[in-house]
Amino acid sequence: MKITSQWLEKRCFVAANEHGNSIVMDGTPASEGLKRGASPMEVLLMGAAGCSSIDVIGALQEQQQDVLDCITTVEGERAETSPRYFTQIHFHFKVVGRNLQPELVAKAVQESADKYCSACATLGKAAKMSYSHEIVIG
Asked: How many CA atoms lie within 13 A of 100 on its CB side?
C-alpha cells in the first residue's frame, strides 16, 4: 500500500493511492475560514468507520440478512496535549433492514471489532474502543 500526499495551499493537501483515488484534507482551524476537506484525524476515523462497516455488511450479507442500509457513527476523544492522539473511540452501527436477526447483527459488529477490522485493531493499540448497535425495521 502506498499513499502520496501533495500540498495544495495553506494547510490543505490532496492524498492519493496507487490507483489514483484521492481525497482532500485540510488542517485549517475552523476559526480561520472555509475548509476544503476533512482534517487528517477525521479521515482516520472515516477510514475506521468504512473498514468496520464493510465487515458488518459483508457478514450480514453472508448470513442472508435483508439489509437496506448501515449508518456508522464514530466519535473520538483526543488527548489534550500534543501529540493529540485518540484516547477513546466509539462506534455506533445503525442497521436498517427487514426481518433482521438481532443475534446476527450483534455477532457481525462484535466480530468486526474483535477479529476482522484492521483499522480498529490498529487504533485500539492507542485508544479505548467501544461499540454499540441498533436495528431499525425498514
From this structure: 28
- Cα 16 to chain centroid distance, Å, stands at 18
pLDDT given at position 30: 82
DSSP code, position 58: H
For residue 33, pLDDT over 90 is answered with no
CB atoms within 10 A of CB 106: 14
How far is residue 67's CA from residue 88's CA, in Å, rounded to a whole number?
Answer: 29
Confidence of residue 70 (pLDDT cuts 50, 70, 90): very high
Q: Which CATH superfamily is domain 40-137 in?
A: K homology (KH) domain (3.30.300.20)
Q: Name the fold adopted by 1-33.
A: N-terminal domain of TfIIb (2.20.25)
The residue among 129, 125, 120 whose CA lies nearest residue 89 is: 129
Domains of the chain, by residue range, sit at 1-33, 40-137
The reported pLDDT for the residue numbered 31 is 86
- Residue 27, pLDDT score: 95
Read off the amino acid at residue 57.
Answer: I
Cis peptide before 83 (omega within 30 of 0): yes
